[in-house]
Amino acid sequence: MPEEKIINKIIYSHTAIRGIAAVVVLFTHINVFLRVDSAYFHLVDWGANAVDIFFVLSGFILNYVYLSAGSPVPWAAYFTARIARIVPLYYLTTISLLPFFCYKHSGAGDFLSILFKNLFLVSGITDGTSKTINFPAWSIGVEVFCYMLIFPLLVWLHAAFHQRRMYQPIMLILLAVCSVMLVSIYDFEGLSLRLVGADLSFLGRGIFGFIVGFSCCSLFRLNYNNHVLRSLANGAIIVAVIAFLLSRLGYLGLGIVYPAILIIFFSAYDIGFVAHALKTRALQWLGERSYSIYLWHIPLMTYLGLLGLKQWALPTCLVYPAIIALVLLAADLSYRFFETPSRTLIRKWTK
After folding, report:
1. What residue numbers bound the domain in which 328 lies?
2. Which are the contacts of 75, defined by CB distance < 8 A and separation ≥ 6?
3. Is 92 in contact with 133 (CB distance < 8 Å)?
4. Is residue 326 part of a domain?
5. Are 26 and 327 in contact (CB under 8 A)?
6. 44 vs 23, 82, 187, 228, CA distance in Å?
7. In this structure, are residues 171 and 221 in contact, taking their beta carbons and an 8 Å threshold?
8. DSSP letter at 193?
9. pLDDT, tens digit, for every residue of 168-180?
10. Tally of structural domains, the chain
């Protein structure tokens, strides 16, 4: 089945969704840090699912960027871009926590093992958060695994079947099966390989989420000019958001992942009043700095804790926005003066 030509090069709605997901992770960890427990907490306490949304977005965007043109994937440029995108900031934020890590674990028997795993970005693959120095960065190692192994396999599948009628049914089956697995994997926490003692639930979330995003994008590209789907875009997103909120409030047992997949699919059209709202400067700003927000908030809160912030007896209504402001400031500086320049520099070096 031939894929339809896509005009838009950037999905601005997805940039905003990535920013919202990063802020949700930030809110979730601030709530834990300050021990906030309220109805508001339950509305924003879905940081784990926000990370799943990152995986789905990654699979979607890589498919969108590298397969929409219809030409072979430039693998050298692809691997360079992936390394330049994630590695420098990963190491910088991990190094920022090394003094704290060494102080707490210098006498531990697995000290060198943990350092080794973090150095080679495998701590998240084998142990999730438990052995990752900057614990949100567990997902970065899983992302790298998906970049290096899962995406090439999916590209091969695409090359083998995208001109055949069975391609769309294959993508639908992949989407359905991996969506269910992504939701169900939370019921199997601690899933392990006995031979290596590795917790694979985190890796499974990355793989299933990435495949969901990839298959979702393939279906999107096949139906890009489908007038019925385009006309339903805004309504479908609103319904999915309502279902999302009702699930958080306990009125629906639908979970978060299923509505999120619908939102990602229909928002990719980037049309209508929903897209207009997502394209606001504030949300685009957050989306561009989402990676820095995601990786810097734990180091900052860790050192605030070491400075005795919790013992200062300051009201939460002051501390909460102060932490948010500090993280956003650090993310902006990191994005401007480290993340973007290092990305540009690595691409120049490889050329």
Report:
1. 12-350
2. 152
3. no
4. yes
5. yes
6. 9, 30, 21, 33
7. no
8. E
9. 999 999 999 999 9
10. 1
